[in-house]
Design a protein that fits this description.
The chain is mostly loops. It is 0% helix and 0% strand.
């Protein structure tokens, strides 16, 4: 409620294989019991570097997120 202290209410695992070299758009959905909140924070973990066999092998990996829907 204060924008500083957060409570984890869900975790979504990535089902896209690290060996998949094709550009991928993936929707992730977290389902949980409704709660009252003023602020929402989403966190994502990125690989330290792109995996072997990837065209950018060994370089830093990126996560791109363009939309969060909260209902």
């Amino acid at each position: 409620m204060d924008g500083t202290h957060f409570t984890e209410i869900g975790t979504v695992n990535n089902t896209v294989s690290q060996q998949d070299k094709t550009p991928t758009i993936k929707d992730f959905t977290a389902t949980f019991t409704p709660i009252k909140a003023r602020y929402v924070r989403a966190s994502a973990k990125v690989l330290n570097q792109l995996p072997k066999g990837h065209s950018g092998e060994g370089k830093p990996a990126w996560i791109f997120a363009d939309e969060f829907i909260v209902e």
